[in-house]
């Protein structure tokens, strides 16, 4: 099979004959000239046909070309200043490769259920393509930042006997003769063990929460990157998060201009994401919220409404640190200055996007960690290996988890996480 | 907390005072001088102490330092030609941060069950660290190759209503009120839909097979990269695989010399992995095997023994293409030249490593695909969305899946997949 010329390469082929293969975006005809816009995944191009050059049958085929049918266009690449890619194709022949009768997604408003039911076709829409490209660049930027900073990727298991943050929101599966396995909610506990081997490590993969939550900020399956660093404390952890988030925002701004344009994103919003980010203690945050009339008592976790209030009017993300111990996970290190709190932080994105990162210094004292496991009523026998890390050469270490889809939604300006992943999984959706 | 100097940075600090924090690899003392080898994940360094510089208590602490206990060493960086990193630390003080009483993994032979049970500690061994680094570089090389070639990463769901290659080897989980969900065996069917949106795409994540197989070449949870390309046929698919495998092998050879050394890998083996790879039809392969006395009939799939025989004496991977339709998956394109076969290939690694890639051109004809789904007795209603891809602008496309752990095992020379992933999952192991 002769490979067609990718549309992204046409600009460098001015004056050359080419064959373009792709899907019909739209067709417009004046009766003497027809404009066929074709997309192939690398871009889209306008192909111009003259009635005089074509026989009757081909002209009819052309003007009746169906939305999303596949075609092969032969022609010559011509410079064109009005084209977003600088060229168009002066076409001399057309072959329809496959029809697309009544393509379900039309250039009109569709309900979200209809779109999700047709996610396999909805993915072809310009906005969805832009989001997939922004997601890809976000992932690459995260990996490049971590690699340049000396991290090694150590992927952690999905199928696990130990449970992570909270039972009751776990997906379960039968595992041969070994009983029940759970789908990991986090790779953190495992990646901590790798930090003792490799110093700076991260995992980056899908995680699972069987939460009965229907908000626009929840998916049951989502991707999370979890860096973990030996000999780093909670302050260093926030420094690392700040550097990473700024690097990623700058990369997306730099490399995804066209896609951000498709999203209608205000680029100034991304340009504002530079160090330093403000750091506010949980205790101060609660005081501010109380002053502003919010009903919140010291000790309870912040809700989405509280997060939105704290970031209102800010152009950068905000760190909130040192939350109450009773509101947070068992593995967080007790704050020596105030044992009712732990050395942790959330990072709240502005514009109402809320928490995109949760991080903490980990409890590195064997006895304290064991006491916390018992306090929480967790199955002690499942955590023997995790406790071992505090038994054999324990070390201060910290890390965090950044939710990929929440970050992509924020950077791209998407309102709902369901558009930031190819096949979103929610409480009410497992197909297609 | 003052961050210690990473050991990897010591070579650039000759003559400077430093604090190194890490784990004790070993201690050796002559009575007047003591050599303490410390590792911190970025490398290891020898710290030299003189008896004359230390008080009695510190000397005792030093010479009794436990394997894998954590220490802070203060001293000055000195050039040293015998050191693999070019420097050692002339130490003047030592602080033991944490003991490590009777670290379970000693420098002696342990049984594999013992090691796997202590995988969280075994990871700290030099060979395991080397393997994790080679794995990381392999993943990075794959992603860089694909990105430079114009691919977009589109991750596919793990939780799915549709099944992939074969029922009966699926992990299942209850999904809210929506019935049973399955853990994906492949992202291919989904990534095909993304190829219609973005042209060249791939997914790269964990996949799951509940196979009751105990060989050294099987894991129940393993990572797979699955590129998929619009307008590419089976020959182009093999070209792409060849380019990618050669790129990855060259990168690992270039960037992981020390780690390959730790593995005892013969570097000439990797240097030999250059284009072109031989391409042999399944029909020719069976003829050769029959000539060599193997019991195999045309129509059955190749076993591990057949693969080993076909690659014996070869220094490069071998493509075997155009397998019988009845031995392969329903979605592979019928070969127009011989409808009893399909346009597919496996890529067999030399040295007995066997299949590392399976790929094919996909059936792009609606009626033929539907017939194959019916022939295989698959639940037609689950594949409506997949069939839609052949209904709305169908297009020739091909792709493949490369098993990460098999590739890492081959490149590194590891004999068993269980060492090539941080927490291997097998039929008999789900912990730690």
Show the helix and strand layout:
The structure is a homodimer.
Chain A: E1 17-29, E2 33-39, E3 44-50, H1 56-63, E4 70-79, E5 87-98, H2 112-117, H3 119-122, H4 126-148, E6 152-153, E7 159-160, E8 172-174, E9 180-183, H5 188-198, E10 200-208, E11 221-230, H6 234-255, H7 257-262, H8 267-271, E12 278-281, H9 282-291, H10 304-311, E13 318-321, E14 344-349, E15 354-361, H11 366-375, H12 384-388, E16 397-403, H13 404-412
Explain what you see.
2 copies of one chain form a homodimer. By secondary structure, chain A is α+β, with helices and mostly antiparallel strands. Chain A has 2 domains: 7-98, Nucleic acid-binding proteins (OB fold (Dihydrolipoamide Acetyltransferase, E2P), Beta Barrel); 119-419, BirA Bifunctional Protein, domain 2, CATH 3.30.930. Chain A contains 13 helices and 16 strands. Chain A has helices at 56-63, 112-117, 119-122, 126-148, 188-198, 234-255, 257-262, 267-271, 282-291, 304-311, 366-375, 384-388, 404-412; strands spanning 17-29, 33-39, 44-50, 70-79, 87-98, 152-153, 159-160, 172-174, 180-183, 200-208, 221-230, 278-281, 318-321, 344-349, 354-361, 397-403. In chain A, the strands form 3 sheets. In chain A, strands 6-10-11-16-15-14-13-12 form an 8-stranded mixed β-sheet, sandwiched between helices. The two termini of chain A are 31 Å apart. The mean pLDDT of chain A is 96. Chains A and B meet through strand 1, helix 3, helix 4, strand 6 and strand 7 of A and strand 1, helix 3, helix 4, strand 6 and strand 7 of B.
């Amino acid at each position: 099979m002769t490979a067609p010329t990718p549309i992204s390469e046409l600009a460098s082929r001015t004056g050359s004959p080419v064959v373009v293969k792709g899907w019909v975006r739209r067709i417009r005809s004046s009766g003497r000239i027809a404009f066929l816009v074709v997309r192939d995944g690398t871009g889209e191009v306008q192909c111009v046909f003259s009635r005089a050059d074509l026989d009757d049958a081909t002209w009819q085929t052309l003007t009746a070309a169906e939305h999303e049918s596949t075609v092969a266009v032969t022609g010559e690449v011509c410079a064109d200043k009005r084209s977003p890619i600088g060229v168009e194709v002066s076409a001399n022949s057309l072959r329809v490769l496959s029809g697309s009768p009544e393509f379900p997604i039309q250039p009109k408003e569709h309900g979200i259920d209809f779109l999700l039911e047709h996610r396999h076709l909805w993915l072809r829409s310009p906005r969805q393509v832009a989001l997939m490209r922004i997601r890809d660049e976000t992932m690459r930027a995260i990996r490049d930042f971590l690699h340049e900073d000396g991290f090694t990727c150590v992927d952690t298991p999905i199928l696990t006997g130990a449970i992570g943050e909270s039972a009751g929101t776990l997906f379960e599966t039968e595992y041969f003769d070994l009983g029940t396995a759970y789908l990991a909610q986090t790779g953190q506990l495992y990646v901590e063990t790798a930090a003792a081997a490799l110093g700076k490590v991260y995992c980056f993969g899908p995680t699972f929460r069987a939460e009965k939550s229907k908000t626009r900020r929840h998916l049951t399956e989502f991707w999370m990157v979890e860096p973990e660093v030996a000999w780093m404390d909670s302050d260093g952890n926030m420094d690392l998060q700040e550097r990473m988030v700024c690097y990623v925002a700058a990369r997306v701004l730099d490399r995804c201009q066209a896609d951000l344009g498709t999203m209608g994103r205000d680029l100034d919003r991304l340009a504002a994401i530079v160090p330093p980010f403000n750091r506010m203690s949980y205790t101060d945050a609660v005081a501010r919220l109380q002053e502003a009339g919010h009903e919140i008592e010291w000790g309870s976790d912040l809700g989405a409404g509280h997060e939105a209030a704290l970031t209102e009017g800010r152009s950068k993300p905000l760190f909130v640190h040192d939350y109450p111990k009773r509101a947070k996970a068992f593995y967080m290190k007790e704050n020596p200055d105030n044992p009712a709190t732990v050395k942790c932080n959330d990072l709240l994105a502005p514009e109402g996007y809320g928490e995109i990162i949760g991080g903490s210094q980990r409890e590195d004292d064997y006895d304290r960690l064991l006491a916390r496991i018992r306090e929480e009523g967790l199955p002690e026998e499942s955590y023997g290996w995790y406790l071992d890390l505090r038994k054999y050469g324990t070390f201060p270490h910290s890390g965090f988890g950044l939710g990929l889809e929440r970050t992509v939604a924020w950077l791209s300006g998407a309102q709902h996480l369901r558009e930031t992943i190819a096949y979103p999984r929610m409480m009410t959706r497992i197909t297609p």
